[in-house]
Amino acid sequence: MKVLDAVATARALPWRQLLEALEQTLADQAAGHVQVPERWVLPVSSATSWFLMPAWLTPPAPDLAAIKLITYAAGNGVHGLPAILGDVIVMRASTGERLALLEGPTVTARRTAAVSLLAARRLAPLPTGPLLVLGTGVQALSHVQAFTEALGVDEVWVGGRTQASAQAFAQNLHQQGLYAEPVTDLSAALARCPMVVTATSAKAICLGGHVRDDAFVAAIGAFSPQMIELDPALTRDIARRGQVVLDSAAARHEAGDLIAAGLDLAALPTLGDAPARRDGGPVLFKSCGSALWDLAAARCVADRLFFNTAGTGRH
Question: pTM above 0.70?
Answer without folding.
Answer: yes
